[in-house]
Each structure stands twice: as C-alpha cells, then as structure tokens.
Amino acid sequence: MENVVLISDLVFIKRGVAKSTPDKVEIDQEQLKELLQGSTSDASDDEDEVKDGDEEMDEKAEPAGDGVKTVEEEMDDEEEALKELMKEYEKEETEGETGPKMAGIAMFANPKDDPYITNHDDSDEEDEKDDFIIRPDDNLIVAAKVDKGQYSLEVRVYNEACDDFYVHHDYLLEAPPLCLEPFYYDPGSDNKQGNLLAVGTMSGSLEVWDLDIVNSVDPVLILEAEGQRKKKKKKGGRKKRDGTAQGHIDAVLSCRWNQSMPHVLASGDAAGILVLWDIDEAKPATVIDATAQGGIQSMNWHPVESSVLLTGSMGGFVDARDCRSDKIAAQWNVGADVQVEKVIWDHFSPFHAVVASDDGKLRYLDMRNAGAFVHEGMAHEGGVEAVGMSCATKGLMATGGADGTLALWSLSSSHLKEVHRTNISLGSIHSLAFSPNSPMIVCVGGDEEDLTRIVDLSKYEQVVSAFA
C-alpha cells in the first residue's frame, strides 16, 4: 500500500445524529507547557550526546599525506565550520537566559498568555468555532483514506443549502481501512443512542470509533475473538486458519449494522468467515464458516426481514442467509471466475436486490426465484466497484467503476436503463453513497485529484426528466 492513494469506502451520517458541539480530547495545559518548554536535563543530555558524537568523529579522522585534502577531510572541515557557527548562534540565543532553549521560542501554551503577542485576531477564532459546530441541517461524511502508507478516517461536514464541504476532523489508523459502517446504537450511553463507526481493516480487526469525540488516538472498542486480546502482528501477518478461531482470521472486507436489531453487527473477511457481533457484550454471538464461497466482499441486511442477510463473495456466490438458523435460504452464482463486488437490497421492492461484479455487469435478482437473475446488463468496463440507491427517488441508482465514470440508472423489475453517464475526473471510482436526507445528492470517492466529491444529480437534465 506504499504507493496507493484512494478512498476505499465512504458513508453518510444522517442529520441530527452528531452532537452539535463534539467533545474534544485535549492535553492538560501543564502537560502542554512541559512539551513546549522541555527540561534542562534533556537539554544537557542532548549536549552530552553531541560531544560524544564529536569525539567519535575526531577519533575516526586521520590526516592525509602530501598536504592534499581528501573528500572526507573537506567534509569534516565544512562540518566543523557549521558547528562553530551553531555554537555562536546558541551562545547569542541563550545569553542571559537560565531556562531551556525551547522556552524562548514557545513559552506559552495559550498564545493569549504571551505578552509579546498583542494583536489577537478574534475573527479567526470565531470562524473556527463556527466551523466546529455541527448544525441540524449538516450531514457528516466519513471517508476511509489510504495515502501512500498513511491511513486515516476523514470526517467532513456537508451542508446542502450552503454548499459547504470541508474536513472537520480526522483519525489516524494503524492499518488500511477497507469498509465502513455507521451505527447509532451505544450500549454505554443512558439513552442507548450514539454516533459510532465500525471500521474493517486489513489487519483483521473491526474497530469502533466515536465520531462525536475529536482528536481521539484510539478507537473506543476493538471487536475481536472472544477471550483473546490480539497482539501486534508483523506486517502482513494472519491468524492460523485451523478452524479454532472465534472471530476473523483475515482482512475484514465488509460490515453492516442491523437497524431492526440494533445490538447486532455483521462482518465478513477475506477468508470467508462471517461473524455476528453482539454489541451489548462486545463479543461474537455467531461465527459462520463460509470459506467455501470465498472472501465475503459485501453484505446487506434485508430492509424488512431482520434476520435475512445478503452476502456477495469472491467465489461468485450471492447468498440470502437466515441468520437465526445459519441456513442459506436462496443462492445465486455469477460464475466461478467472477467476483461479486457489491450487493444491495432494493428498498422500494424488498423481494429484489442488485448485484455488482468485477466483470462490469449489474444483475437484478428476486429472492423468491433462487438461482436465476431477473435481468442483467453491462455497466462499466473493468468492473463495477461502487453502487448505491436513492433514499427517496424510486428506481434511481448510481454506479461507479474502474473506467472512471459515474453512471445513473432507472431500475425496475422489468428493466435496467441507463439515464446518464459522466466522467467526474476522480480516476477509478471505488466508493459512492447517496445522502440519507436528500434523494439527489451523491458523494463519490476515487483515486485521483481531490479524491472525494459531492455530485448533485438534480443538475443533470436527463436525470431530472427521467424521474419527474
């Protein structure tokens, strides 16, 4: 992942869920002063280390004969001259001072306490406070960002009325994030409500972050095998696949919260292990071995039947599974050499679901007719990597793929019709999500330019006329 830059997944947070003023993790003022001022003992230790280093260099230096200086000697002379210059500079800086050198640069944790700063710009501070507040008509959008070996969750504020779209805060991750799932159930709060985010990572863990806490350095919870606290593994390490693990044994590729049973969260990994987590107990309630189907790349709970989970796998299988009995109620196969990328239920027609795959096709299935697809069509060259459905406009669906295009569709049980297609200059489209509050707003994530972009579908005449 050292040279990879992309948004691997992104999600909307519904309006009204986030705290209007998020909590902040702040360093104590005394601790901050210590960090800024340093300590005299540390300074003296550093000076001793410099002296020791100079002595070692002097011992290694040997005179060259014939009065001709070698390249090494010339470099030594330059180093000595630089050291003398730095000594003079330090002497001038520390003359008359008894405290550590850092104190002369940043003595005060709060700039308003510094007597040398007299012109405080209150307008900037007011603007920052204004941007920090989450308003009732704001959505949060969280993007899983991979940036050349640096991994993070980027939390943005989007306001449709003002067209605001900016980074509010972020969280640094130790492993690449692969999937995101927001859930609004917090068993630790008095009213059981929260603003939490599950993050599946390449390390095989399922981390839970509280989006209402800014500057967090650790997740509030890590879901893992019961009775085990995972030790840090070597890069690329995996758990043994001996059938004894009560949790994930490979990278977590998909996760979904069950809104009908809010204490249940499902997740699937690259080995084909499906775990149903009990959020109340923070442990696995059920572990299902689906390794025969391959890695579980996508899943979705049925919008009406709370125990039915639809999964799509690397092995080309789509399973409708009744989690009460661990039985597959219906199964479809898109082909042994085809990977299922995404599965979503049609919430306007709950018997039906959409399947997107890496052969570039979209397929529409009926849960009552196992094994056969209602209809299918080509969507993207190079594979369909993202798919979403409007929250309120019936039949409006969007897809994105490796070809870099955003395609908009009219979907029904009888047809799949392309309405509009556009290249939005984000490279390959790896993720997209419809707003849960606005039927024509889509956020898209790619691997080029600004990586994340809001697209207002109401600006496309073809879309407006198709769904008028």
Automatic annotation (TrEMBL):
Q: Which domain of life is it from?
A: Eukaryota
Record region (Disordered): 32-79
Keywords carried by this UniProt record: WD repeat
Q: Which SUPFAM superfamilies match?
A: WD40 repeat-like (SSF50978)
Q: Where are the WD repeats?
A: 245-287, 377-419
**Pfam families tied to this protein:** WD40
Annotated Acidic residues bias = 43-59
Q: Which GO terms describe its biological process?
A: rRNA processing
Q: Which GO terms describe its cellular component?
A: nucleus
This chain's protein is named Uncharacterized protein
